[in-house]
TrEMBL record:
The keyword Iron does not apply. It is found in: Membrane. One of its GO terms (cellular component) is membrane. The chain crosses the membrane at residues 55-75, 87-111, 189-207, 227-247, 259-279, 291-316, 323-343. Pfam families: Nuc_sug_transp (PF04142). This is UDP-N-acetylglucosamine transporter. It is a multi-pass membrane protein. Residues 1-11 have a biased composition (Polar residues). Residues 1-41 are annotated as: Disordered. Keywords: Membrane, Transmembrane, Transmembrane helix.
Length: 453
């Protein structure tokens, strides 16, 4: 990708790209229909490929919704319905989950390396044993993720599934705060407003639960400590936000593949989880055994939690952020509905209102700050790639052209495009490519360009 950008910027032309000179667009004769179809044809997806990608896209999204809802409900059920008289230890469940997730990541990398054991061994040696500094940096998120998983078990032991799903969305607030402080990311006014709405919604949900809990305690129906669950959710949201932003900062600072990073994190996570078992529950493990209280339902909880990372990776690749937001919203709604039948959960008006505010804030936070087209062309490193598609649809208005081709400035080439020495080139490249890749319907872009004229 870098080579493509640098080549097009230095020569000012490429196959299918407009000629550039001093920030202006050369006038050229429109392509004939035959030449246009021949240039676009290699990039046009066949119907079968489109259907296949759509099935993967929405299928993975359904799996993500199912994983979000299923994990919370099954985990909650396993912590409140004891079949054999013994409650399983949460620390051992976290350890088993980390082991299974580590094995799954190894399997994915092994598959990507064409099932070559030697190549897998080389990758593990180069990125694990021969990279002690990287492993030390990854011990921080590994420790936090292990703590977070233990907190989730504690929260779902003391909170119903629906309330937990709503309260846990506070991780959006903590992620935004840590992104602003650790990554220097600007938070727009819309996102600040969404964070305020989120906080209000969570507070309303907590108020509704407090009144219900008081009534239920008086009648003897409630046997859980809601305050402990609330503190556990808040701590889990904080650890989720910090560890996620920390991990993102590490990813942007190197070119190591994501699955290799998961393996690097998985190894210390397994060790930390095992240490947690020893520190918290060593006596119970010694007296009753490691798998005390385990049942097929517990193994189901461990499996669903372990495969969640794989499902998220597929969604990130084939879907977009808006669809992930809808998946989160649907998971909250489905958790409430299923909890009404499975756990005799009865939401009041305060809970419904607070949950709606949380869902609204999630949608607001993920809304683009500007239209997709303007968002794409604001990333100067990708202007040639985007114009390769846009120039075949309609003429670029003067206003758009001024945004794409600014006046030359210091530390830039003749066309005014930031050179490869620009400090933020890599960050712009990643964010611009992600935004541009979501623009798939070029007819809509043509209509938008017409409005801008």
């Amino acid at each position: 990708m870098n080579s493509v950008v640098s080549t097009s910027a230095s020569t000012g032309e490429d196959e299918g790209l407009p000629l550039l000179e001093s920030g202006e667009l050369h006038s050229r004769r429109p392509k004939s229909s035959s030449s246009l179809s021949s240039s676009v044809a290699p990039r046009v997806k066949t119907t079968e490929t489109t259907i296949h990608n759509a099935l993967i896209k929405y299928g993975s999204l359904l799996l993500l919704v199912g994983q979000m809802v299923g994990l919370v409900l099954v985990m909650r059920y396993s912590r409140t319905h004891i079949s054999n008289g013994e409650m399983y230890l949460a620390s051992t469940a976290v350890f088993m989950m980390e082991v299974m997730k580590f094995i799954l990541c190894l399997g994915v990398v092994f598959y990507q390396l064409d099932l070559s054991p030697r190549a897998l061994g080389d990758e593990i040696y180069n990125h694990v044993w021969a990279s002690p500094n990287e492993m030390l940096k990854l011990c921080v998120p590994s420790f936090l993720y292990t703590v977070q998983n233990n907190l989730l078990y504690l929260a779902l032991t003391n909170l119903d599934a629906a309330t937990y799903q709503v309260l846990y969305q506070l991780k959006i607030l903590t992620t935004a705060m840590f992104s602003a402080t650790m990554l220097g990311r600007r938070i727009s006014s819309t996102k600040w407003a969404s964070l305020v709405v989120l906080t209000i919604g969570v507070a309303i949900v907590q108020m509704s639960g407090s009144s219900d809990s008081h009534n239920n305690d008086a009648s003897g129906k409630e046997d859980r400590n809601r305050l402990v669950g609330l503190v556990a959710v808040l701590c889990a949201a904080c650890t989720s936000g910090f560890s996620g932003v920390y991990f993102e900062k590490i990813l942007k600072g190197s070119d190591v593949a994501l699955w290799i990073r998961n393996i690097q994190m998985g190894l210390p996570s397994v060790i930390i989880a095992l240490a947690t078992v020893y520190i918290e529950d060593s006596r119970e493990v010694y007296q009753k055994g490691f798998f005390v209280g385990y049942s097929p339902l517990v193994f189901c909880v461990v499996t669903v939690q372990a495969v969640g990372g794989l499902i998220v990776a597929v969604v990130v690749k084939y879907a977009d952020n808006v669809l992930k937001v809808f998946a989160t919203s649907f998971s909250i709604v489905f958790s409430c509905i299923i909890s009404m039948f499975l756990f005799d959960f009865r939401p009041n008006l305060l809970f419904v209102g607070g949950a709606c505010l949380v869902i609204l804030s999630t949608v607001m936070y993920s809304k683009p700050e500007y239209p997709p087209l303007l968002g794409a062309i604001h990333h100067a490193e990708l202007h040639c790639v985007y114009l390769e598609q846009a120039i075949n649809i309609t003429r670029i208005p003067a206003r758009i052209r001024q945004i794409v081709y600014p006046q030359p400035r210091e530390n830039s080439d003749a066309e005014g495009i930031p050179s490869s020495t620009d400090k933020d080139l890599q960050n712009y490249l990643y964010s611009g490519y992600e935004l541009w890749s979501n623009i798939q319907n070029y007819h809509d872009n043509a209509q938008y360009l017409g409005i801008m004229k």
